[in-house]
Amino acid sequence: MPIHQAFLRDMQVAFNLSRTQIVTLFKDIRDKPNDYGVIDNAPPHASFPSVVERIETLLGMNSIFPNGAALTVSYQGTNFEFETPFDLVGWILSVTGHIPEDVTTANYYYPLVILYCQWCRTLCAREKKEAKMVQITWYTQGGTKRVCLGSSLDRPKGERKEIARTRRFNMLSRDRLALGYERHLPYSGDGGQPIGHCAETFPILFIKSLGEEVTLPDARGIAVKPLEALNAGMPNKFDVPDTETLRKDLLEDPCDNCEVVLLR
Length: 264
Hints:
Blueprint: E1 3-4, E2 9-10, H1 11-15, H2 19-31, H3 42-61, E3 71-75, E4 78-82, H4 85-95, H5 105-123, E5 134-141, E6 144-151, H6 159-174, H7 201-209, E7 220-224, H8 226-229, H9 244-250, E8 251-252, H10 256-262
């Protein structure tokens, strides 16, 4: 199993970390960002303390959503508003670590998104509110390989989820990735979910924020269903699905919403 360059440990070891150990690791990254390869510019370094504090607060509340405002966090100099611990963990994985030159989907990207699934499950275990979909996007920026990870908005349903979804939509609209009339328009074939629900939302926003350095067509990604991918019946969870049946069970093609947004 590959060693994740950010966490300096075998991914299987990282996979088995407890809730407390994951938070302790995040605190260590916060305190020693250069040791862990956090993106070398001031905004991500400055955002780390508030991200770790918010994760701890949400875990202490046994909640997916904060009582008050979203947390403003920087990705390479552009601010975004985050709600859930899943998005905050996705941000940590997106700004931390040097990706090896010889990475492939099989030896790095897929294992990393499975690790993300597991950490999200471990952190929300008391509430069993893990996302139904997570996504990893990878791309090259100025010769440096990067990843972005995000999750869908699923539970708890209701007003608080819609507030978070609307906030995501507003960020997409700000970057001209969503149009005003689409605010409450569910595209057919997407289970009735309006734009802003999808796990691809923050990866798309991150890449869009980089302007001409990276374009969405240059990026690649995988959407994974955590409930299925982490099923006890999957003995080798880090292995890329290698049959049509497994791919159908564990992975998801871009939904109608993403197909619309990605073209912009």
